[in-house]
Design goal:
Layout lengths: L13 H24 L5 H23 L1
Helix pairs in contact: 1-2
């Protein structure tokens, strides 16, 4: 999975970063739903990874929204 890089520095507004995080969460949730119905190699490991990635981005969103 190609991952877009982003930085939590002053080079992007909070709104841009929040928007990117929300988009990433939506993509990850979509991939997670797909994995739940497909038979894919390493499926359960990938599902765990996606859940962890979603949780970390949601935590960042919580911090950004204060």
């Amino acid at each position: 999975m190609a991952q877009e890089s982003y930085r939590l520095r002053g080079d992007g507004s909070n709104q841009e970063i929040v928007s990117r995080l929300q988009n990433e969460i939506a993509k990850l949730e979509s991939q997670l739903k797909r994995l739940q119905v497909e038979e894919a190699p390493h499926r359960f490991s990938l599902m765990k990874t996606y859940k962890t990635m979603i949780a970390s981005r949601q935590e960042l969103l919580t911090q950004m929204n204060g």
